[in-house]
From TrEMBL:
Keywords: Membrane, Monooxygenase, Oxidoreductase, Transmembrane, Transmembrane helix. This is FAD-binding domain-containing protein. It holds the Pfam family FAD_binding_3. It comes from Eucalyptus grandis (Flooded gum). InterPro entries: FAD-bd (IPR002938), FAD/NAD-bd_sf (IPR036188), MOase (IPR044560). The keyword Zinc-finger does not apply.
Length: 304
């Protein structure tokens, strides 16, 4: 006899429907499936943030990373026009290039005079449930939509996962985003200073693409800068050469980010708004510009 799917079990007797479901990267079910792994229309992968950070850090020469260095302000050296960083412990770093990956409250974005991210009415509650003997469930992913509450669970379980979650580990955060038109018109470079990741394009969690887009930024930025770093005249690396490389990075990223931000914004507005007119406009925009709902996954930022 076929074992009952935990999604079906969790949804039994409720007027809830699975909005997204990807099972172990292989099979998928449901009319509402958002990520269809079987047809290779995008994929949902769970990635522990610490594992990603450790993998990235392990490729750097030891001593490259300096912890506990909170940036307070950036100024331009009046003589060299290169940036000077002032840290909270009073130390000062003179550098040639600054790439601000300092998230939604970015000091580097402030230095670039970018408009501050806007508040969205959606709040995020995140929590952990500890299973001392292991949970025994496969690494599945589901989000459920009910009465304007969107519930995501990784891996899959019944509602006991929520009831048994650790109250001390619950976190409630607001959602902020950089409006698509601010991404379109924002000036992301001043001298040899630029931004990447959320500092550049924070978006709501409706597509789950913010972190992935930050990784794309890193690849494109490295590709634009690397040829100059390895050229024989690297000792002469000038502001103009660095500035040109940063401009190439911004140009290559901008429209990809505008489309991602716009799609996220429209889906967010559709889900958040109570106005039928707004919902109708959002649906029209989706039909006009984002008819292919998996379109954003068919993007290749290229190799390093
Ligand atoms: C509820 C929710 C769900 C999400 N789901 C997904 C998903 O499924 N998939 C996905 O791809 N993305 C998702 N995202 C988005 C993703 O989390 C972010 O896009 C990603 O973390 C951005 O990475 P970042 O390195 O740019 O910024 P952060 O991860 O915010 O890192 C910024 C770093 O800068 C440091 N910092 C901040 N200020 C300073 C300072 N002044 N000086 C020095 N350091 C500083 C911080 O300590 C931090 O280490 C989600 C976001 C939310 C809120």
């Amino acid at each position: 006899m076929e074992e009952e799917n935990p999604v079906d079990e969790a949804l039994k007797g409720r007027n809830w429907k699975p909005y997204a479901y990807c099972s172990s990267g292989e099979k998928t079910r449901g009319r509402e499936a958002y990520v269809d792994c079987a047809k290779r229309l995008g994929e949902a992968r769970c990635l522990r943030r610490s594992v990603l950070l450790e993998a990235l850090a392990s490729d750097l020469p030891s001593g490259t990373i300096r912890f506990g260095s909170r940036l307070l302000a950036i100024t331009m050296d009046p003589e060299t026009s290169y940036p000077i960083l002032r840290l909270h412990d009073g130390s000062v770093i003179k550098t040639k290039v600054v790439i601000g990956c300092d998230g939604v409250n970015s000091e580097v974005a402030n230095f670039l005079d970018l408009r501050p991210p806007r508040m969205s009415p959606t709040c995020n509650v995140r929590g952990f449930t500890i299973y001392p003997d292991g949970h025994g469930y496969p690494h599945d992913f589901v989000t459920i939509n009910h009465n304007r509450v969107f519930l995501g669970r990784v891996p899959l379980d019944k509602k006991s996962m929520i009831e048994n979650s650790e109250p001390d580990l619950l976190s409630l955060t607001g959602t902020r985003y950089r409006a698509p038109w601010d991404v379109l018109f924002g000036s992301f470079r001043k001298g040899t200073v630029t931004v990447a990741g959320d500092a550049m394009h924070v978006m709501g969690p409706f597509l789950g693409q913010g972190g992935s887009a930050a990784l794309e930024d890193a690849i494109v930025l490295a590709r634009c800068l690397a040829p100059h770093m390895t050229s024989p005249d690297q000792g002469e690396l000038s502001r103009e050469i660095i500035g040109g490389a940063l401009d190439s990075y911004i140009t290559e990223r901008r429209m990809r980010l505008v489309r991602l931000s716009a799609k996220t914004y429209i889906i967010g507005s559709l889900l958040e708004s109570t106005s039928l007119v707004v919902k109708l406009i959002c649906i029209l925009m989706i039909i006009l510009f984002f008819r292919d709902r998996f379109g954003h996954t068919r993007y290749d930022c290229g190799r390093l």
